[in-house]
Amino acid sequence: MRRAPLAVLLLLALAGPARAQTPSAPAVNPRAVLGAMEDAFASVAERVTPAVVNVSTSVKRGAGERSPEALERFREFFGDEFFDRFFKRRREEGRATGSGVIVDPAGYVLTNNHVVENADEITVTLSDARKLTARLVGRDPKTDLAVLKVESGQPLPAAVLGDSDRLRVGQWAIAIGNPFGLDRTVTVGIVSATARNRVGVATYENFIQTDASINPGNSGGPLLDIDGRVIGINTAIVATGQGIGFSIPINTAKDVLRQLIASGRVVRGWLGIAIQDLTDDLAKSFGVAERQGILVADVMKGGPAEAAGLKPGDVIVEFASAPVREVPELQRAVAGVAPGRPVSVVVVREGKRVSVTVTLGEMPSEEAAAPASTDEQQERWGMAVDALTDEIARRFDLSTGRGVVVSQVAPGSPADRAGLRRGDVILEVDKKPVADPEALFRLLDALAPGASAPVYVRRLTGSPRGEYLVFERPAAR
After folding, report:
1. Boundary residue ending a domain (266, 287, 308)
2. I need a surface site. Which of 13, 210, 303, 364 has the fewest CB within 10 A?
3. What are 347-356's pLDDT values in tens digits?
4. Do 289 and 215 share a structural domain?
5. Which residues are CB-contacts of 103 (< 8 A; sequence separation ≥ 6)?
């Protein structure tokens, strides 16, 4: 006999026993409603808990340490207590713990990358207390996902994967994991929001937000719907808030899972550009409406975008015939296209719409950039600059004889308010090239009091890229 879905049972309970309905006395059986909800949650826990595992690791000392910026982001979202217990202990004692979910009876386990990165040994503890040594199949830092494989000699209980594209805000969400080492804890809430980005945990973010209680140790565990299907992989919390947790959509995880099992790595499309959102001031400077598109800040030499004719200052308004308005939206769209495939891109250039076809390449591995140089502080405009040296120009593929390197930025100054950072290379002011410090200040001084202009810089710290900033000359007092 086929069992009715839990959602249907819940609706039947809400309706109560069949009877003649009257406007003044709807038939509702509160006990039946509560009982159906209780049965639904208990059924999910009974069916899925055997597929949830504890993931513990011993970590290679000194291997692949996170950058200070990345550590600060994790401290912000996980909180001081978890940061000290997880990352600090991980560095000092070489241990880490988290959660995972078995997604294939053959022994494939989904978890978070930050749970297993740099692990020397990985141990998976099953619901029957068996401890199995896990092999790292592959990991994807850009989505904070990883896949493990365990051998048990028999099929393992596996969770059923759902469809995160069909989620509705307000529907039930159930989390299972190992918070603070409390194995297979079940918590219940709702889907608070979908498509959350700019959280700062991963490169590609499209998170499900939930108020189902997620705590340190839940990382890598499943987020489930009322029928027990996995809709997300829990990955982060806002430690300073209450009931604000984030989960990677399972449809994103499915693609990463498939590629990691097939080849041990994830292949993504690549345009070869640096992009940024349009602010009000930048939109005016480039003659487009706010949030109309995404600004191309830099075009990488030899990349697909350069071959197609894209230029710094172009505003991308369509990609693959779909409008784009935010940087994360375009990043996900480009990454989802197979390398070698031609894609139509529409840009606004000098006020006119231009359509180009770009044949995407494969996203290369990221390389670390060199630190910026330092020099004495200068007073004018709140920044100190030096001429661009041949060595820096060669290292970052810049033209010699063009640009100045920022060595200091004074807090609260016009340069600081514009977002300039030490180590930036200023290449243009108001679309005019900058050859040396004197040319830079001459162009800035030409601005009328209270006026602003776009300043094009090349970021050399973090991931090297170009970006437009808006400099404003203070109004005369």
Report:
1. 266
2. 364
3. 999 888 999 9
4. no
5. 51, 109, 110, 158, 159, 161, 230, 257
Half-sphere exposure of 195 (CA within 13 A, CB side): 9
Q: What tokens were used for 106?
A: 């053959």
Least confident of 48-57, 86-95, 118-127, 201-210: 86-95
Pairing of strands 294-299, 273-277: antiparallel
Q: Is 144 a catalytic residue?
A: yes
Q: Given the residues 99, 219, 285, 407, select the one marked as catalytic.
A: 219
Which of these is catalytic: 56, 99, 114, 192?
114
pLDDT digits (tens, 9 = 90+) for 110-136: 999 999 988 889 999 999 999 999 999
Provide the domain limits for residue 308: 269-362
Catalytic residue among 140, 144, 314, 424: 144
The domain that contains 468 carries what CATH number? 2.30.42.10
User: Could you confirm whether 375 is annotated as catalytic?
Assistant: no
Query: How far is it, in rounded angstroms, from Cα 263 to Cα 147?
Result: 12
Rg of the chain in Å (alpha carbons): 26
| Local structure of 125: helix, strand or coil | strand
